[in-house]
Amino acid sequence: MVPVRPVKVAVDAMGGDVGVSxxxxxxxxxxxxxxxxxxxxxxxxxRIISSFDGLAQIPNLxxxxxxxxxxxxxxxxxxxxxxxxxxMAIALQMVSDGQADVCLSAGNTGALxxxxxxxxxxxxxxxxxxxxxxx
Length: 135
Description:
Low-confidence stretches: none
Shape: globular
Oligomer: single chain
């Protein structure tokens, strides 16, 4: 079996229909179960920290503050133009800058696709972005 290299995961902690009450405990559970990997929760620092007791005791989990968030009903074009300081945009920018290996978001899919195309670009020969679902 080939050993898996440690991965840095930037999580859009504000994304999804419910937000931090679901994303933060799930990310913490992953970090505890996978100590070789690093989890970076991106979003409103105060809301993230106050949503989960003991977050500071998880050594491979950190928080990166984002001053804005993209709501589920926002148009992707609005997110692309006006939400560059959102948790989703910062998590994607971290991948673009090499500060994270992957971005994970349960947020607005249209905004995620638009920001991904803008910040990460497409691979040569690939014309459309793809979504991943574990079966």
